[in-house]
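Appendix B: complex inputs.
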Amino acid sequence: MPRYLVERTFPDGLAIPTDDAGAKQCLRVVDGNIEHAVTWVHSYVSPDRTKTYCIYDGPSPEAIRMAAEANGLPVQRITEVRVLDPYFYH
Amino acid sequence: MIFVSGEAGIGKTSLVNSFCAGLPSGTAVHFGHCDSLDTPRPLGPLFDIARTTSDGLGRLLTTGADRHTIFTVFLTLLAARTSVVVVEDAHWADEATVDLLLFVGRRVGDLPAMVVVTYRDEEVGREHPLRRILGDLATVRSVRRLPLPPLSRAAVAALAEPLGRDGDRLYEVSGGNPFFVTEALDTPEHHVPATVRDAVLARAARLGPAPRRMLDIVAMVPDRAEVALLRAAADVNATALDDCVQAGMLIVDETHVRFRHELARMAIEADVPATHRIELHARILEYLGRAASADPARLSYHAEAAADPAAVLRYAPAAAQRAASLGAHREAAAHYARALRHASGASPSQAAGLWARRAEECSLTGQLTEAIDASARAIELWRAAGNVERQGTAMARRSALLWNFGRNHEAHETARAAVALLEKLPPGPDLAQAYTELAYLLMLARDITGAIEIGSTAIEYAERYAAEVVLARALNAVGSAYWFADPDRAVDTLVRSLAAARRVGDDQAVAAAMCNLGSGAGEIRRYRIAERWLAETVDWCTERDLDTLRGYALAWLARVQLEQARWSEATVTATEVVNADPQHMPTRIVALTVLGRLRARRGDPDAHAPLEDAWTLAEQTGDLQRLWPTAAARAELAWLNGTPERIEELVGDTYRLAVRLGQEWATGELGHWLWIADNKVRVPAVAARPYALQIAGDWQLAAQIWRQLGCPYEAALVLAAGDDTDQQLAALHELHRLGAWPAAELVARRLREHGVRRLPRQPRRATRDNPAHLTARELEVLRLLPQGLRNVDIAARLHLSPKTVDHHVSAILAKLGVSSRQEAARWARKAPGGVFKDGETPEAT
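Resulting structure:
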């Protein structure tokens, strides 16, 4: 299954509290992904919280987009990526 | 719906009977049996069920109502009260029953009903019709499969040892087959019989001669024997029947007698000497021939088994006609084949008619090789009989078969030969048909002038000679051709085709007319008309399980959504089509092209692959209507990727084909890409207006036309390529709004090169205006939820397919974080500011 880097923009800043409510919010996204066979691996967030870079596994770019829409998340750009591990060669 | 499968004798029926016996009282239970006549009765199980219900189902079946009505009434029956329906031995199901199972399987999830289907998996090979629906229903959540395993060694031992028998030996011989095990344990001998057959015959032998004669005749009736039939055809008394029942070999249910197990019936049937079998079948035939309501499929079976060719010729065609009228075309084709096996005494005309009808039925079931062979024989026999009208008609029908088989050149030749032959005679319905087939072939090849000219004559004759079936098809050919000559007349003509198809009750022709209304309007970018008819086609086909045309209409709907920049919807629709893996090539080409264009325009990865696949398929057809959109999509991708020098190679040949056929939208779009690559290129006057205007430098009017057509992406691209900085900035803004970042980056780069400094930032998404991030379409759906509408009703109101509404509702639930549509409706009522337009209340929408 291909891996994708999904860039999202949150003009008002992303607000996920580090408590039960935040955990619930994240799990809701995970649940919403299931129907589209999409897995959220993890994300990187910019310090001002207006941009996120999310690593996803999914069957197609369409599945990524439909899952994002089901979860009410914006999508700026999707790039297919592979892992490059710099320490692999050591 | 539960599919219970396993080998013969594994205990499917016992399991189902025991399940039904344990149901709470008040649960209605209906049984339907598929029978092992080599060509089964059409909708046999439904006839059984109708006997045990008091609503109008039985009357509908005997009065020959159309299939859709029958299926719908059956569904209403299931909706009325808690019920269990058992369809036994579906490996013998006729085509209409298989269709019924698919129809019910897709809808049973919403009903208070359970449908149990039993079948022998060893009889369901790769080509078996049941295999197809098992695949189609594989992803339906309310459908489950229950394969039954044989008894274990320990279980056989547990049964055998109390009787002092060798459990291990019995397990080795029987393989744990429960029927075999019980039969073997029932034999008094202490040795284990070697086969099921031995066990059954041993039991029968113990009964004595009179009961054995009773068993013999019941064994000749693979469905179920009426008690009255046995009384008339068997020279045995009622005690014999009682003995058989007591011995557990036969079962009597009210008026019918059958074997407790089909394996036992087959063992007895095979044990009857051949000459005696013929004699028994002749007696049964004689009885059934006098019975008023006997199904001709049964008569035809016994006529063949009684070696009575005259009776076969009488009953088999009648059985075929009945099967065809219920949509069991596979069975109809088989009945004609049976009649033809016994046609040595028939006249050439009679045989020719049978071959011609067999050709029709084979073509309806996709047996194209057999259809082409049968049509050749029909033509030859009509010629020998000197019947020129029929010969010409058969040739005309053959031309359509040849086209479906990809023998296009031969198809045109045959259609022209049919016309030449029939033109020598005074005009009549036959000539109308020949003209119709020729016109259809010309329309498909986009010879628009020829199609309209010949098709119009076909319409005139079909009307004059009241040939409605021909009329519907002639109007479709001409109407579809008019899209490229006089679009307003296209609508009128296709609507007339639709009406004619409805009058003769031809569901497929109705769908074909609707679909060409939708796709034709889409091809010339009349989106309102296109969407309306495509949505109607999808609904019509969904209700009737016409999957091929449903897929094609959905693919076109995705294309129309894409062209209007409704990319989220197009994504959902195109994905649905592609995930269903359609075998219909035109459907694949349209859907893959839409997917590729969506990826290209949004800068998503891998736009290349679906477009290459679509192109390979399109090239095989050689048809402009398939080549043009894919060629244009590949050119667009090359442009967005910054390689415009590849465009000529990608679209040149297709462009020249479009110019030669004078097709305006194809010429315009492809010519415009050639002009993007090389601005010295000029296009002929036939090119569609917005493209011609842009190339001529009138980008402002071109953009206005694009907006009027409903194509904001094209409008933005035209403005961006103009020379007014404000307009270019507005175009950039629009491209950002659409999420078209590859085009937006091209435009931004050009603006920076021209010294424009302050480019707009990416705007907020439209969905951010409402708290739950619902899209406009989801808001529309949410507004209807408080009224308690079902998805099909919402779909009808919004001109969407129920499946799409299903997607929207799931998305709404996910976004609102609620688990039911009732909760979503409550949410909508509480937050009217965000959901309902000013002055609206939930109930009033």
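The first strand of chain A starts at residue 3 and ends at 9.
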